[in-house]
Amino acid sequence: MALTTLPASAGADEVVEVIERDGGVIVEDFVDEPTRAGLESDLRPILANLGFGQDDYFSGTKTRRLGALFKHTRHAQAIARQQHFRAAADHFLCVPEHIFLGPDRVTTVPTVQVGVTQAIDIHPGEGSQPLHRDDSVWQWRHPEGGRQARVQVMVAVTDFTADNGGTLVIPGSHKWDDDRAPRQEEAVPTEMKRGSGLIWLGGTYHAGGNNRTDTSRFGITVTLDLSYLRQEENHYLSLTLDEVAALPDDIRRLIGYQASEPTCGWIERDGIMRDPHFLFEDGELGAAQVSMGRRETA
Ligand SMILES: O=C(O)CCC(=O)C(=O)O
Ligand SMILES: [Fe+2]
């Protein structure tokens, strides 16, 4: 079963309906050509100066990854604002819940925030990633009252094909519980023209694919996440970096300058997703890399 592709003229209802059913959908012309070309010309030169990933479990060894995209290109803004993406995030994430304040039943509606911005450039010879759910960063459980925590997009900067590592997706896997392991033969490749976007849920199993061609597959992923998946008090803005540096190591880590398995809280430096505590280790990058956790089964 291939993923459904909708034209850019599709309504929000159609996009939501297909995602409800399959866990993901491809939208053609997700960004216009000037935006796609701008993303490519702003980011390719930066990527070209980065090394490859350093682990064959997740990040790959023939893949270049760049984060902090709002710093590197103004065209990333168009992705975060794209209408189908936002409509899907509104539908799946901005779900009202009630709480009680004494006798008063009060409705709360979460907002969304950008969780990840990452350019992913898969070079020839890269193998496929293990199939995974990106909401694993919070150990999200399924079904969590049917709630989703993340709506994500992969924008094709180059064409995505079955041969060049087009994102593998298991349709319908957003409905699976946590005891079912994903199998490679259940996954279908995302085949889409450059400028298109694959929108999928944090609970949908997917993976970067194997690039068997001689050119790179360049995509940009942006996530919209539940805004409350963060610290209640915003220590990042309450203390300056100098004030944080003056704190003892254990307190610094406690207020957020530490990543959590698997891969939550990273900062990209030199193309590697790093545990942020390296920032305070005498300016040394160190070997700090986020960890996916320990493998229990082969
Ligand atoms: O590059 C891709 O197609 C997917 C990458 C991915 O799923 C990830 O790095 O979490
Ligand atoms: Fe992923």
User: What is the string of helix and strand elements?
Assistant: EHEHEHHHEEEEEEEEEHHHEE
Task: Return the CATH architecture of the largest domain.
Answer: Sandwich
Number of strands: 14
Helix content: 10-25%
Order of the strands making up the biggest sheet: 1-2-10-7-12-6-3
Description:
- This protein has 298 residues and is of the alpha+beta class.
- The chain has two domains: 213 residues, q2cbj1_9rhob like domain (Jelly Rolls), CATH 2.60.120.620; 66 residues, no CATH class.
- The chain contains eight helices and 14 strands.
- The protein has a seven-stranded mixed β-sheet with strand order 1-2-10-7-12-6-3. It has a three-stranded antiparallel β-sheet with strand order 9-8-11, with no helix packed on it. A two-stranded antiparallel ribbon has the order 4-5.
- The radius of gyration is 19 Å and the shape is globular.
- It starts with a strand and ends in a 24-residue tail after the last strand.
- Fe (ii) ion (FE2) binds next to loops.
- Keywords: Dioxygenase, Oxidoreductase.
Quick synopsis:
With 298 residues, this protein is α+β, with helices and mostly antiparallel strands. It contains 8 helices and 14 strands.
What keyword list fits this structure?
3-stranded antiparallel sheet, 298 residues, binds 2-oxoglutaric acid, binds fe (ii) ion, Jelly Rolls
